[in-house]
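Recap slide: UPF0056 membrane protein, sequence and predicted structure.
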Amino acid sequence: MSLSGGHIGVVTYTSVIIGIAAVIALTFVSFHYSSFISNKLGKKEMNVITRLMGLILAVTAAGMIGAGLKGMFPVLVS
């Protein structure tokens, strides 16, 4: 689904708005209960979660760098 061109109907806008509202609600709930969650988790569990989030961030960065290099140097793609 692309919102950049063509005819965009009411259903498309409604689904996008519902998706955005769901993400906002989940973010609010997770921030609201973050102190409760961190109190229930121990030090080891928080370290594991921190390392996993760092790994996810590193993988995302590597993917973005790879996409940028492919765009800059199309010869590398072949």
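The mean pLDDT is 90.
The chain is about 75% helix and 0% strand.
(End of recap.)
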